[in-house]
Amino acid sequence: MTSLQNLELAVDEACCAPSGQAVLSAEDAQRKALVFKALADPNRLRLLSIVKGAGGGEACVCDLTEPLDLGQPTVSHHLKILVDAGLLHREKRGTWAYYSLVPGAIEQTAGLLASL
């Protein structure tokens, strides 16, 4: 066997050796991807910003359509995605829905990449 073949064999063996490090589970990856997908839209980022900056820590859906220049159904769709991702909390009051940040959600989101 030539030295080049020995080198190729050594590289192949090193490439296939398991690292022994913990791997992100499929469930954790799915949960993190849901948050990243929710944040991947500029309108959703703006909604989070508006809700975070709202007086009293909450905003009515009726106050969220004008700043984005979007229709109410579109804003509601974006808000649902943010709620499903665990970033916003929704409270129904009569005809209107009010949204607030889930306590600790921003901090948890900031740590998602660090926990990979």
Q: DSSP strand (E) fraction? A: 5-15%
- Estimated radius of gyration: 22 Å
Top-tier CATH class = Mainly Alpha
Q: How many DSSP H or I helices? A: 6
CATH superfamily: Winged helix-like DNA-binding domain superfamily/Winged helix DNA-binding domain
- Low-confidence runs: none
- CATH-defined architecture: Orthogonal Bundle
Q: What is the H-and-E element order?
A: HHHEHHEEH
Q: What is the CA-CA span between the terminal residues?
A: 41 Å
Structure description:
- This protein has 116 residues and is of the alpha+beta class.
- The chain has 6 helices and 3 strands, in the order αααβααββα.
- The protein has helices at 3-16, 26-39, 42-53, 65-68, 72-84, 105-110; strands spanning 58-60, 88-93, 96-101.
Key traits:
single chain, 116 residues, alpha+beta, Arc Repressor Mutant, subunit A, three-stranded antiparallel β-sheet, 3 strands
Structure described in brief:
Helix 2 (26-39) runs antiparallel to helix 5 and helix 3 packs across helix 5 (72-84). The protein has 116 residues and is an alpha+beta fold.
SSE blueprint:
Layout: H1 3-16, H2 26-39, H3 42-53, E1 58-60, H4 65-68, H5 72-84, E2 88-93, E3 96-101, H6 105-110
Antiparallel strand pairs: 1-3, 2-3
